[in-house]
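TA notes, week 10

Several of you asked for a full example with nothing omitted. So below is the full record: structure tokens for the whole chain, then the designed sequence directly under it. When grading your own attempts, check the secondary structure regions first.
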């Protein structure tokens, strides 16, 4: 059983993983609160409404003694852990609204959330779910929303950076890990944007007022509700207004070269259909549980793999328009499909405290199979990454898969080379095949376009 490094901050309990099982300890500082929560039915109500990950009290005298815990809770396991800096705009917006909705649901039942970290929300398919049971605490009238600053930094500010400035939040968020500080966000805004009444209310004026309260000598009393702070009615009004504002936010990034690629590319319709069928048959033949789709675009081939029987698909793409389209597809068709943002030349590293708080891309995302369609040239040509390294990285993700090789005389590669010197003398199908065959068995190859694009199905030798 392995302790999850990222759960170190909570003195009330820790998370452990044992294969397909996830357990949470409840330690003595939270024992009384948790006993009340258990008897209240709020856990069952939250699970039933789809807010909380299914959770069961599995405490026994033996396992509690073993972990020196008051209670042991088992959670359903989320198929893949993702982080907010890997989400597209629409996914972060969905998580932000979900957090507010859960907070209001709890407050109506005299409970609340003790914090507002985005890392407490995960996605199953493209649907959000809350995973931190110990963040649920009894509500006391007059208590402040102590997670408000965290909510701004981890939800609202990143969304505003994109919605108001057209700047994708991902790199900034990943670099700061705890989100985007309000002072930094305000520094990017124009005077007109700063004078927007919502920005004034929720960021500028409210933060100054709330900071005075939290810096006061009576902070402890206000937070616990023994001194008048914010009434439940006022706090609910704030949550409702925030929800209404965020609901209207949208990304100004509406078009991109790759966002429209699924419907505007060099394939003929028959070629595209042949390629989809090849992916569908690959999934069906190999009875795939989990598949990773590198360069998933809007999800055409992820969906094809699901039609072929893949139980879970995680797609990755760098293009923000494509990601929002992929998530819309996943939701509209209720697919077991999670599309995430990835800069493949700079994947998420291990970071945070002792470089273990947030796991790297490689530590989290392995699968039964991988597909990389019209993808390798974006690394080998656009990023100057040696072709052997590209192939080694793709094949390390899963033991079987399909890689599409795009030849140099293909129109897309030629466009990449228009504004730069062709220094890629080793970039050829013959060399690609030799590299792939070095550590993998080539099961089949299938040409899928007039330009010579070819699907290589492989099986890793070890």
């Amino acid at each position: 059983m392995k302790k999850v490094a990222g759960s170190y901050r909570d003195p009330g309990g820790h998370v452990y993983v044992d294969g397909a099982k996830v357990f949470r300890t409840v330690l003595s500082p939270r024992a009384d609160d948790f006993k009340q929560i258990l008897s209240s039915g709020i856990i069952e109500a939250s699970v039933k409404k789809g807010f909380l990950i299914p959770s069961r009290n599995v405490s026994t005298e033996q396992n509690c003694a073993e972990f020196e815990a008051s209670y042991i809770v088992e959670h359903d396991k989320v198929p893949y852990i993702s982080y907010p800096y890997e989400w597209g705009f629409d996914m972060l917006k969905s998580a932000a609204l979900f957090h507010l909705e859960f907070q209001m649901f709890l407050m109506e039942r005299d409970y609340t959330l003790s914090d507002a970290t985005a890392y407490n929300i995960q996605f199953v398919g493209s649907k959000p779910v809350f995973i931190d049971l110990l963040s649920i605490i009894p509500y006391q009238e007059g208590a402040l929303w102590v997670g408000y600053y965290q909510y701004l930094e981890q939800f609202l500010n990143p969304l505003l950076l994109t919605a108001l400035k057209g700047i994708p939040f991902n790199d900034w968020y990943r670099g700061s890990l705890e989100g985007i500080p309000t002072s930094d966000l305000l520094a990017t805004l124009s005077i007109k944007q700063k004078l927007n009444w919502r920005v004034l209310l929720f960021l500028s004026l409210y933060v100054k007022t709330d900071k005075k309260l939290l810096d006061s000598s009576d902070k402890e009393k206000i937070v616990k509700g023994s001194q008048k702070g914010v009434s439940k009615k006022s706090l609910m009004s704030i949550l409702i207004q925030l929800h209404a504002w965020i609901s209207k936010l949208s990304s100004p990034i509406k078009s991109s070269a790759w966002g429209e690629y699924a419907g505007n590319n060099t394939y003929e319709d028959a070629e595209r259909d042949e390629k989809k069928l090849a992916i569908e048959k690959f999934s069906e033949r190999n009875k795939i549980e989990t598949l990773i789709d590198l360069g998933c675009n809007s999800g055409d081939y992820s969906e094809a793999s699901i039609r072929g029987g893949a139980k879970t698909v995680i797609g990755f793409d760098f293009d923000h328009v494509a990601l929002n389209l992929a998530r819309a597809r996943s939701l509209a068709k209720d697919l077991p499909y999670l599309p995430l943002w990835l800069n493949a030349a700079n994947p998420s590293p291990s970071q945070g405290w002792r470089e273990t708080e947030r796991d790297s891309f490689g530590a989290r995302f392995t699968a039964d199979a991988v597909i990389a369609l019209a993808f390798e040239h974006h690394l080998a040509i656009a990023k100057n990454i040696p072709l052997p390294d590209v192939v080694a990285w793709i094949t390390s993700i899963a033991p079987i898969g399909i890689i599409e090789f795009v030849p140099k005389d293909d129109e897309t590669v030629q466009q990449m080379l228009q504004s730069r010197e062709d220094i890629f003398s080793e970039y050829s199908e013959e060399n690609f095949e030799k590299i792939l065959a070095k550590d993998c068995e080539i099961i089949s190859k299938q040409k899928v376009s007039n330009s010579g694009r070819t699907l290589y199905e492989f099986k890793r030798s070890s």
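The longest strand covers residues 440-447. Use that as a sanity check on your answer.
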